[in-house]
Write a structure and sequence with these properties.
Number of strands: 13
Largest sheet: 3 strands, antiparallel
Helix content: 10-25%
Distance between the termini: 46 Å
Shape: elongated
Strand order of the largest sheet: 9-10-11
Order of helices and strands: HEEEEEEEHEEEEEEH
Number of helices: 3
Radius of gyration: 24 Å
Oligomer: single chain
């Protein structure tokens, strides 16, 4: 006779019931009277979530100009825009006086953050400024650093541009560049 440990039996019963309940409700919510795609009375329509769009999708969105502090799991506190995309600084720009050295092809890849966005969140407003670029547009600055989005970031909090050309880095809400992971344990959590 095989003995099954006591704690295993209730767990197995719960998992079986959950699997049956999920299977039954999934079929009931999508069909009615044998017609797929119709909704049963009293059931809510399925929720549709918008997928994040790359920065190039709508660079004129005013939320792309909002500055926010955001705590990330690996880089600590960093600056993002109102849609959650990472904001970068360029080490080859100057801060005294504030000047962008990223123009033409560079500015097509590293999109300048437009000045005059919605009120900042978790960022000291006294650090926020603006400059007039060579093309006449206004660009936001933080602690004197002109700010940019990277077209290679495909989703919010993505930091694909970090360290590019050894000059592009995410920027912290105080204007300092972020070069290293804040949590050394997470830096190599998977041993790669």
């Amino acid at each position: 006779m095989i003995r099954i440990p006591r704690p295993v039996v209730p767990a197995a019963v719960c998992l079986t019931a959950l699997a049956l309940l999920t299977a039954c409700t999934a079929g009931a919510a999508t069909t009615s009277g044998g017609y797929a795609g119709q909704q049963m009375p009293g059931m809510q329509a399925p929720m549709t979530l918008a997928m994040p769009q790359p920065i190039t999708a709508n660079p004129n969105d005013p939320m792309k100009s909002q500055l926010r502090g955001a705590k990330t799991f690996d880089l600590g506190l960093m600056l993002v825009d109102g849609t959650g995309y990472t904001i970068y600084r360029y080490d080859r720009d100057s801060t005294d006086p504030s000047r962008s050295n990223c123009n033409d092809a560079c500015a097509a890849k590293w999109v300048p953050v437009k000045a005059g966005g919605p009120a900042p969140i978790d960022v000291d407003p006294s650090l926020i400024g603006q400059i007039t670029r060579d093309d006449g547009t206004q660009q936001a600055t933080l602690a004197g650093w002109p700010l940019y989005h990277f077209t290679g970031d495909s989703e919010p909090a993505d930091t694909s541009g970090q360290g590019a050309d050894q000059a592009w880095y995410p920027i912290a809400p105080d204007g300092k560049k972020i070069t290293l992971t804040q949590d050394e344990w997470r830096q190599n959590a998977f041993g790669v």
